[in-house]
Specification:
- The structure holds 2 protein chains of 2 kinds.
- Chain A has helices at 2-25, 31-36, 38-59, 65-82, 103-124, 131-147, 152-157, 166-178, 187-205, 211-223, 225-230, 237-257, 260-274, 279-294, 299-326, 348-359, 362-365, 368-382, 386-408, 424-449.
- In chain A, helix 5 (103-124) runs antiparallel to helix 9.
- By secondary structure, chain A is an all-alpha fold.
- Chain A has 20 helices and no strands.
- Chain B is 47% helix and 17% strand.
- The longest helix of chain B has 39 residues, at 2-40.
- Chain B is elongated and about 85 Å long.
- The chains are: A mainly alpha, B alpha/beta.
- Chains A and B meet through helix 5, helix 6, helix 7, helix 10 and helix 11 of A and helix 1, helix 2, helix 4 and strand 2 of B.
């Protein structure tokens, strides 16, 4: 119980930081508006605290409960200090819509709550079974917790030494709040991440799309076998997916609404994604490239801003790259080099085939990716252009990125026949599936209304 | 075209609702089974979890925790002599022990030696057996 209460306190701490960030970037009109944005605020807090802790670890700041609390307090102070200077970029928020939650929202919202409650009970007493979790993710977190930093021995000897330490740092923070390296209760930290993601998607889309479009797809992603079965594993896969999916949603919304806070929030989440796993670089690159494609018609306005957001996100990731490069730690790129794939052209088709097979695997992801394809087509048929072009580019580029990874890492056997528990393609494809919970409702809304624009522009 | 698009949207929503509801029931059921399984697991099995597939005798690592101080070093020497070893034991026990015994550190010249199927006679330094499970796993302390 002590560990559980400590974990609740930790996540309240992360939420508090995120609320301060939200206050600086967007603000809120009412308590109900703040409640609706709580999920986004929470993940902004997770991302910002994770990035800050990672940078502190890289420069050698001792990791302890004191520095953890001071970091959070410092971030809150900075955010609130920036509130006044950023005032002119904050949006003028519309009044809350009259009437309470509709029947569809209540019904599906209840299903989502029941699903998350079942997830909580499953994770409450789960042991650390996932191989990568005990092989390197949790040991890195333990090393930070026990030794107060990026211990030279463990961060050199543990597998995947170039993987950024954002998640281990967050896990170490959880250990401090729990009072011990409780790897059982740690599973519930990932439950908080899942709840935060669901709440963030619902909160961002609820004022923009019909509940008939929002809730069924959110529920569908949550109950996809791979998502329901593995999202509590103390690994970085789903946290990366949440950062990526929310950043993609925020960018999509920014492309049509042009509110600066949307792009600023996306920038923060992209930085967090870059520091969560090495695949984050590929995913963020695809996201930014897709945004460039989607904003082609308004490129004079959009491209400089997108470029700036990408540069700021990338800047946050550079210190970690300097840290592991200076210690001659390798594994970030294919052993034969990023372009050595041209020496293995015979792997191209098997790589693409493996990627598509994983993405459209019914036993893993149900019918989510086929629905994405249909949603993009319908959006075009309906007359929208920006959202479906962005989504098409994002899915195509990310699929190409996954294919590149399979093609270039020649030590991976192709075609992949291994169990999904050890299959890296499955983990990579999860990012697009999770993003679908956010993007499909937006696509279908654009198809229904025949345009990309904000709802108030459709009258 | 707008009518076609809207018909398509309605179809997608219907499909999502159908699959979502069916798999909602299945997911909640399966998660409930997982919760029951985890609750029924004893403390040791829950603590070892993934290690149950390669540790063979949990007492060894518990004993190592007890005798090796938290700021101490250890060396794990794997070998083929563990009774009941799985195909994963010899290859991965060092990784699992590194996770399980933290903050204790693995070190090549450590005073404490965990012999996991090794030949104790083949150790470079003379060592005293501190614990032995009689099935190929022992903990030794090097003698100076």
């Amino acid at each position: 119980m002590r560990a559980l209460l400590g974990l609740v306190a930790y996540n309240a701490f992360l939420l508090a930081v995120g609320i301060a960030v939200l206050a600086a970037l967007r603000g809120w009109r009412s308590w109900s508006d703040l409640a609706r944005c709580a999920g986004l605020a929470y993940l902004l807090g997770v991302g910002l605290v994770g990035v800050a802790l990672t940078l502190e670890l890289v420069v050698g700041v001792p990791f302890s409960m004191a520095t953890l609390l001071l970091t959070g307090a410092g971030l809150v102070v900075v955010a609130l200090t920036l509130r006044a200077p950023l005032a002119r970029w904050r949006p003028s928020l519309p009044p809350d819509r009259p009437g309470g939650l509709g029947f569809v929202t209540l019904a599906f919202g209840l299903l989502v709550v029941v699903c998350l409650e079942a997830l909580f009970r499953a994770g409450r007493l789960a042991g650390l079974s996932a191989w990568d979790a005990w092989a390197f993710w949790v040991p890195k977190a333990k090393a930070i917790y026990f030794f107060g930093g990026l211990d030279e021995q463990f961060f050199r000897e543990l597998a995947n030494p170039t993987y950024p330490p954002l998640l281990p740092a967050l896990e170490a923070g959880a250990f401090h709040f729990m009072g011990s390296a409780d790897v059982v209760t740690l599973h519930l930290q990932f439950w908080f991440f899942a709840c935060g993601f669901a709440a963030a998607v619902a909160g961002l889309l609820a004022p923009r799309v019909s509940p008939f479009l929002l809730w069924p797809f959110l529920l569908l992603v949550l109950v996809a076998p791979r998502v329901a079965g593995r999202n509590l594993d103390p690994q970085a896969d789903f946290l990366l997916d949440y950062f990526f999916a929310l950043a993609a949603l925020l960018v999509a919304l920014w492309l049509v609404e042009r509110e600066p806070w949307l792009l600023a929030s996306a920038c923060l989440l992209m930085a967090a994604a870059l520091l969560t796993k090495r695949e984050g670089l590929m995913l963020v690159a695809c996201l930014v490239a897709a945004a460039f494609v989607g904003s082609w018609r308004h490129r004079r306005y959009a491209w400089p801003r997108l470029g700036l957001a990408a540069a700021v996100a990338l800047a946050a990731a550079i210190p970690w790259r300097i840290w592991f490069s200076s210690r001659d730690l390798t594994g970030e790129l294919p052993a034969a080099g990023a372009l050595a794939l041209f020496d293995h052209l015979d792997r191209a088709w098997p790589a693409l085939d493996s990627a598509l097979t994983a993405l459209f695997d019914y036993d893993l992801w149900l019918v989510i990716l086929p629905l994405v394809v249909v949603a993009v087509l319908l959006a075009y048929v309906g007359g929208a252009r920006v959202i479906p072009t962005f989504a098409l580019a994002l899915y195509a580029l990310t699929t190409a990125g996954i294919t590149w990874a399979l093609w270039a890492f020649t030590e991976l056997e192709l075609p992949f026949v291994q169990d999904e528990g050890v299959n890296p393609i499955v983990r990579l494809s999860g990012s697009l599936v999770v993003a679908s919970a956010a993007l499909v409702p937006l696509l279908l809304d654009a198809a229904w209304h025949g345009s990309d624009g904000p709802a108030e522009d459709r009258s | 075209m707008r009518r076609l698009a809207r018909a398509g949207v309605a179809s997608c929503v219907a499909l999502a609702i159908a699959f979502g509801l069916v798999y909602f029931v299945r997911t909640v059921d399966e998660l409930g089974d997982d919760a029951e399984t985890h609750a029924a697991t004893n403390y040791d099995d829950r603590e070892f979890a993934g290690g149950n597939s390669l540790v063979v005798d949990k007492r060894a690592l518990y004993e190592a925790r007890a005798v090796i101080p938290e700021d101490g070093d250890y060396r794990l020497v794997p070998g083929p002599r563990v009774e009941g070893a799985t195909e994963l034991t010899e290859q991965y026990i060092d990784q699992y022990a590194r996770y399980f015994l933290m903050p204790r550190r693995p070190a090549p010249d450590a005073e404490w030696i965990i012999c996991y199927g090794c030949d104790p006679a083949g150790l470079e330094r003379p060592a005293t057996v501190v614990w032995d499970n009689g099935a190929g796993i022992s903990i030794l302390e090097a003698s100076d």
